[in-house]
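Supplementary Note 3. Input sequence used for the single-chain structure prediction.
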Amino acid sequence: MSRRPRLPTLNWLRTFESAARHMSFTTAAAELNLTQAAVSQQIKLLEHYLCQPLFQRMPRGLQLTAAGNAYLPKVKDALDRLGMATQEVFGQVKEQRVRVRVSGAFGLWLMPRLTDFKQRFPHIELRISRVQWVPEVRVEDYDLEIRWGPGVWSEPEVTQLTYGQLQPTCAPALLEGDHPLDCLANLRQHRLIHLSGTLSGWSDWFRMAGLPPEQLGSGDQIDSSDFCQMATVAGMGVMLGLDFLTEDDVTKGNLVRPFDLSIPSAENYYLIKPQREDLSPAAQQFAAWLQESIAG
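The predicted structure, written as discrete structure tokens, is reproduced below.
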């Protein structure tokens, strides 16, 4: 039995095809979500494997060598065939699946509402993973991301979902007792819960309320909104709650807002499309449902 010839790594071939199509390592890097150095390294590895230079590095750009010019249409054809074969066998499954990365506490709002999505779109399979911060991940590992932050990122499409207000929020029990939260003066008698790493916080609210900063105290530092909210529901202290996340607990009576003053949040939730390709029909339906549900 004859053995099949060993093939170059697929990533090398994809990088070669992109660089040759654009005649630019920089443009290929942007298309493939790589650094220019990574593109250059992969081309060098492919050339070393083939024992042939594929590009001539010219003072003002790139030029294919004779070998590179002959190799390009064959590589492109092979990649196209592989793509069509994958779509033919697995495309329907992929189009009915949505992989969503959810930042931090957004799940407090999202998870109770997913039943509505599944009732409306029972054929769509959801794969949801939670992240607290924004790590370095491969964009091909997910279709959409719901991210908390200031909204300034490099992804090809960023849509603002919320326009939050921050307002003191506490358990109903804190409205009673020796120092009920019925006036600003009594706020100094209660522990403040601080959400770590945010652009807006208690100091901003105190400034707006005209309260001296020395009343802030040290309080407790917690690095996730959902943990802050759980601690507040348990009566641990007073948090500066984002109205979007606390609304459900306020409606249920688990939380109250003792003071009317609120400040706009410098950070909000955004819907991120990480890849430049078109969204699958399932991802489009999820994105539309999400924006409709938040607006409604």
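The chain has ten helices and twelve strands. The chain has a mean pLDDT of 88.
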